[in-house]
Amino acid sequence: MQAAADIAQSYLGTKHKVIQPEIKHTMDGRTMKALVWFAPHDVRVVDVPVPDVAEPDDVIVRVTGTTICGSDLHLYHGEIMALQKGDILGHEFMGKVEKVGPNVKNLEVGQRVVASFQMACGTCEYCQKKLSAFCNNANKSSMQNYMYGQRDAGFFGYSHFTGGILGGQAEYVRVPKGPVNLLPIPDDVTDEQALYLSDVLPTSYHAVVDTGVEAGDVVGIWGLGPIGQCVARWAMIKGAKRVIGIDTIARRLALAEKAGVEVIDFNTDTDVVKKIYELVPKGLDVAIDCGSFHEPKSLAHKIQKTLMLETDVPETINEMLVAVRKLGRCGIIAAYAGYANGVNLGALMEKGIRLVGNGQASVHKYWEEILNDYIVPGKFDPTFMISHRVPLEDMAKLYEAFNTRRAGVEKVFVETDNSSPSSPGCPKTTRVDQWGY
Length: 437
Ligand SMILES: NC(=O)c1ccc[n+]([C@@H]2O[C@H](COP(=O)([O-])OP(=O)(O)OC[C@H]3O[C@@H](n4cnc5c(N)ncnc54)[C@H](O)[C@@H]3O)[C@@H](O)[C@H]2O)c1
Ligand SMILES: [Zn+2]
Ligand SMILES: [Zn+2]
Description:
globular; binds nicotinamide-adenine-dinucleotide; metal-binding; ADH-like_C; oxidoreductase
């Protein structure tokens, strides 16, 4: 699939953009460690040149915290188009400002910052409204333009389909348009509290805010990974009366139950929709897809996906469309990429369902609010989801362990030689080889 995508991309040419993905290296020959994609299921930590400022708005960040996301597994499986051998992955990272370009006035060398997973220009019509996920100017992929008619913003470390910008699972990262894509972190917020402002926190918040969860709602959540766990907590903060979570991983079900979620194990209750109607006879007000489309349940979709007759699987979406009440809202935050067969369009149309809360989350719209209104006053502590801390040199092994969800791995704080020691109450450093099964 990657070779075909490369051929199609070079045939289509590239779209205009103001952010250049090409990087410049420091002239002193310094190298750094970075996680590099070679092929599906083959990622490696290798030494690569340290990036330098290439454009006047660039900031070079010395990484002090990075991580792996459920979305990285789509890359690991080769499910996202236009990955190239040599791409550095990673889109959630934070660190200290190492060097700034001449146009950068609001950031100082040494300042602690967190990066937005998407890279946006800060000036286009979407950016002016802080809708950074939809920036017009940061992604040159004509293939995305061809498939979707338009293009999203660029994403760090997420293939040439999303701009080909090198990622944050590295010791140093070049952040184009640094003043808009980096958020300064107050001294009293720890690295573990700040890191997830890159992605998980704005993503889960967006799913709840954009589907309009309000007091008295009954909310169903498919998938209780880090995103689903945070969605459940935000839904309660926004006043949901009941939250129902669907998954099959025992410890994820237990973690959600501890937070007050009513849980359904889809391997025990195989008819999820029937179970939901037993619990909520009038149907859900809101359904949110926080799952992963690479795990089809039915034989029909296993076959269609294997034969590449569909890239994505609509099983969760169909369950949501049937389980919501008439005029209910369905939101898709799970990162689908292409086509799925057999979507229940009848239910969508006839029940007047609102499909909202989709899209990549616009980090710039939400991150200051989450930091100032929830993290600083202690109303939302993201460290509940951190299960492990490992050094960057273990990153390739971490992909393997994360893919099989070994040893209870949830969100991981990945440290570099520049990280501070772990904060009180957060996991201490371990090596992936020492983890059990
Ligand atoms: N839109 C965005 O801005 C954005 C950002 C980050 C992540 N994401 C996406 O959000 C999704 C969740 O991320 P995560 O890090 O929590 O992923 P994850 O892989 O850790 O969790 C997904 C969970 O879904 C469960 N699941 C799989 N099939 C299911 C089904 N049929 N019914 C119910 N549950 C099912 C799995 O058991 C797993 O626990 C991923 O698809 C990820 O790509 C989107
Ligand atoms: Zn992510
Ligand atoms: Zn823009």
